């Protein structure tokens, strides 16, 4: 969604994904508004269970520090745009397959469009660049990763939504010193979400 948080509102986002082979990834993101809706800071902490040469391991991945600017609109307008710039810190152990072993820069361009009083769509295009990334063997190469996503939200009730999302990712993997191989992945994600408002407001 291309909506920054309103002043005084802190948002917590938890995400969990599990693959058929048992690998999984969990992320926690916390978003903080800075003097109103225009500027927002957030951080993302990932934990993953991944395959490596000696089996599987679990640990902290590469953390991200994010800044997002509300360029156009907000949650009450037909169109909203809020570009985000992230610095990805090498906090994960690349020897265990938990990180890139180098600082990365990421840019995302989310756009939200109200199609009708019942339908909203969110689009996002992103790119990540990591200079001198490392694999488990210590080999280095520059990496460029791309992602495109879109979701369609059906506003079935005031506090209940039905969602359908897809995500396309195209990523590079280090296969030798200065050599990479590109892989693509496509995900479909149906879901629901709801909100509960406490009596205190």
Task: Provide structural commentary.
With 201 residues, this protein is mostly beta strands. Helix content is 0%, strand content 65%. It is built from no helices and twelve strands. It has strands spanning 11-18, 24-34, 39-52, 55-60, 64-69, 79-81, 84-88, 104-114, 119-134, 140-157, 160-176, 179-194.
Residue stretches low in confidence (pLDDT < 50, at least 5 long) are none
Instruction: Name the structural class.
Output: mainly beta
Radius of gyration: 18 Å
CA-CA gap between termini = 24 Å
How many β-strand runs? 12
Strand content: over 45%
Report the order of strands and helices: EEEEEEEEEEEE
Continuous helix count: 0
**Fraction of residues in H or I helices:** under 10%
Arithmetic mean of pLDDT: 94
| Major sheet | 12 strands, antiparallel
List the helices and strands and how they pair.
Elements: E1 11-18, E2 24-34, E3 39-52, E4 55-60, E5 64-69, E6 79-81, E7 84-88, E8 104-114, E9 119-134, E10 140-157, E11 160-176, E12 179-194
Antiparallel strand pairs: 1-2, 2-3, 3-4, 3-5, 5-7, 6-8, 7-8, 8-9, 9-10, 10-11, 11-12
Tags for this model:
single chain; 201 residues; mainly beta
Describe the structure in brief.
By secondary structure, the protein is an all-beta fold. It has strands at 11-18, 24-34, 39-52, 55-60, 64-69, 79-81, 84-88, 104-114, 119-134, 140-157, 160-176, 179-194.
């Amino acid at each position: 969604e291309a909506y920054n948080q309103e002043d005084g509102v802190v948002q917590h986002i938890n995400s969990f994904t599990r693959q058929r082979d048992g690998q999984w990834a969990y992320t926690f993101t916390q978003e903080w508004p800075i003097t109103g809706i225009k500027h927002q800071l957030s951080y993302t902490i990932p934990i993953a269970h991944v395959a490596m040469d000696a089996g599987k391991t679990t640990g902290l991945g590469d953390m991200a520090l994010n800044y997002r600017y509300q360029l156009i609109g907000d949650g009450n307008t037909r169109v909203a745009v809020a570009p985000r710039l992230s610095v990805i810190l090498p906090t994960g152990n690349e020897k265990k397959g938990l990180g890139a072993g180098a600082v990365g820069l990421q840019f995302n361009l989310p756009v939200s469009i109200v199609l009708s009083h019942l339908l909203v769509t969110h689009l996002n295009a992103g790119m990540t660049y990591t200079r001198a990334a490392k694999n488990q063997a210590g080999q280095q190469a520059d990496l460029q990763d791309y992602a495109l996503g879109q979701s369609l939200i059906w506003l079935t009730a005031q506090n209940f939504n039905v969602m359908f999302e897809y995500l396309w990712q195209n990523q590079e993997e280090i296969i030798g010193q200065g050599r990479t191989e590109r892989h693509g992945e496509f995900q479909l994600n149906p879901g629901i979400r709801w909100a509960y408002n406490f009596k205190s407001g």
